[in-house]
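Changelog-adjacent note: as of this version, every example in the card shows the full chain rather than a window. The one below runs 302 residues end to end.
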Amino acid sequence: MRLLTASGVLLFATLGSAHAEGDSLVDMLGPREIAVGEAMRGGATGASAIGLNPAGLPGNRELVFEGGYGYRPTDGASLVHTSACDSTSAIPGCFFYDYAGSNPDLDGMSMHRTTHVLGTSLAYPLSPKFAIGSTLKYFRFDSDVMNEPKASGFTTDIGASAQLTPSVNLGVAGYNLMGTESTEFPRAVGGGVLARPMQSFTISFDARWRMLDNDKSARYGGGAEYFVSTSNGQSGFPIRAGVLHDNGLSATYLSAGLGLATLRYSIDVTGRYAASGPSDKMIIASMRFFGPRLRGPASDGE
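Full-length structure tokens:
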């Protein structure tokens, strides 16, 4: 626990000044996916599947409750996530709630934005190696920033996941495909591949494209995770690092994360900052509590 606390302080202290950048496509992501450059669409499980690819939920077989908090300093943004995911049933699913609140300073005036998202994700395994999934979200967006209208309603994500080989997974997903024109919930498509060359080592590469008429920007990311097991094999430390490039912002981000994983709970802490382009930084952490676990595909190095 001391190692995790010290690592979180070090990550936060080394980040420079920030330029706030976020919407539902990034504000709903957690520390594990951010640490590896948002590159987990090929192997997202649990809460990571909610924001990246709901079809990944059958990738493990466990009941898990998760809570997380992220902070973006420049606009004082707070990012809160809670979820309950059960992949032990015939149709794996999650319930979740996300909140994003920020106070951007625009032309010397302090503004306020809030976004609430409540929803459910479900996966439908069509075979042991292929699954599809969907996420239904209700959102409410409020803002006192000029030309940012309030919005609320429902929108949907759809994804698919395939196991190409015992160690290689492919995932694709579409986001906010129906029911919203809000700029905070832009339409987008993404895909990625995740490979596990060793049981304790995972690498992944992803891309995501917006589908707006005036914004065809893309994000390309990749990362790796190495799981260091303790001597008893019942716990360990996932170490993660990644790189992400956004061609719309002409920005490149570096990220790193550290975790503690046991049979009953896990803690993850991640920091990210912009190495080029508009300055930006974030620190985010989460804690998971596990219920019953069944034999199934390995995930998260646990």
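Structural remarks: Helices lie at 2-13, 24-27, 31-35, 47-52.
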